[in-house]
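Exercise 3.2. Students should predict the tertiary structure of the chain below and write it as structure tokens, then compare their answer with the key that follows.

Predict this chain's 3D structure.
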Amino acid sequence: MMDRRRVIGALLGLGLAAFARAQPKKGMARIGFLSLSSAKAISHLVHAFREGMEDVGYSEGRNLAIEYRWADGDAERLPQLARELVALKPALIVAHATPAASALKRVTSDIPLVMVNVGDPVRNGFAKGLRRPGGNMTGVASAELDASARQFELMTQIVPKGSVFAVLVNPANESNESAFRVVDEQAKKAKQRAVRVPIRAAGEIDKAFQAMRRDKTQGVIVPGDPLFVAARAQLAKAALGARMPSVYAQREHAEAGGLASYGSNAAASFRRAAAYVVKILNGAKPAEMPIDQPTTFELVVNLKTAQALKVSLPKELLSRADRVIQ
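Answer key:
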């Protein structure tokens, strides 16, 4: 019979070996981060990502260096910023949202890419499949198409007699185009009309809402996009000024004064993306790592905005809300 101390020693050895495998490799891990947005606009999401990294032992400045590149809402800057990051030859690059992922895909097939809040990775050509991506890209998708249909349903509950609804679309984001197609299909089934409203920069928002008001648009749906998140306060103010109910994809909009939001939690997605980063740093291959899709969605309603718009929200909708802002 094996000596009791030898058994305990063997078990401890196995535990220490497992612990060692989970620890960061020695030295400084260097990664890239590319976003269409600005550092200020998504500071809370970057904070969530850093928290996720710290949970597994990586701390920026101690054993983690992150090269950030921000397009500040200008999609035309993304190709150059993507090339800059690839030239640095980091261990991997985090791509925030579809436009950043598209820019990086065009310039590298070797450096691992971790997507976060990217719409339909298969349709956008980032992966062969969700279970086995098969290339250099993996990460966390946004499940935006499923949410878009629900956002349209919410809009029709908020404006039950409406017939014309707008969908804001950033032309640089194919996921926004897909979201519009989903809403358009739902509107046709309900014998209503969806209108595509392109927004390429924050400076176009106020004029767009003024035009929608003149055209008697009865509500607006805003898909997830870094440009729209960065301009969330401006969007909320413009919608209120146009007396127009609005439904958004991300809770940040409702918190900034938008009427309602329905979608996945972006901060949670950034924390999950950190887990992908750590696995790749420890040797995992993106091609073999299943892409994560959110399964939990949250409804946030801003009752203060509803009162300002003089919109009467259905009690059923309020009872289902995960959060009501008063």
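Discussion points: The longest strand covers residues 29-35. Confidence is low (pLDDT under 50) at residues 1-25.
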